[in-house]
Amino acid sequence: MAIDQATADYEAEQEKREALEDARAVRAESELSQPVIPKVCAQCVNWRSSRLLHRADGTTWRRPGFCVVKAAVDLPQMPQTYAERCRLYEEEIPF
Fold it and tell me: Number of helices (H) and strands (E), helices first, in the chain?
């Protein structure tokens, strides 16, 4: 009788394991099917977008967007697509 109970417990555990593996496979498949949004500098916490500046002589000038970290250390500004390779990239998550 103890052997029957152990066999039943083992079979129940195997069923649970199979259900978990199936759920993981479904979750992994759904994660893969979601579109991959490429990183761009404008999504980074270090990015400052372009804005219109008013000069003392009454004219205006549009300051281009830039990375404040790169600007602070006088590094060249890179194109928006550089975010994929940038080691300073940290995604801004607005709440």
Answer: 2, 4
| Strand, helix or coil for residue 45 | coil
Q: Could you give the residue ranges of the DSSP H alpha helices within the chain?
A: 2-33, 68-72
pLDDT tens string 25-36 = 887 777 666 677
Residue boundaries of the structural domains of the chain: 1-34, 41-84
**Rounded Cα–Cα distance for residues 66 and 62 (Å):** 12
Q: Read off the pLDDT of each residue in 34-63 and give the average, rounded to a whole number.
A: 88
Distances (CA, A) of 78 to 31, 82, 84, 92: 31, 6, 11, 18
Q: How far apart are CA 53 and CA 15, in angstroms?
A: 66
Q: Cβ atoms within 10 A of the Cβ of 67, count?
A: 21
Which residues, at least 6 apart from 50, have a Cβ–Cβ distance to it below 8 Å?
62, 63, 64, 65
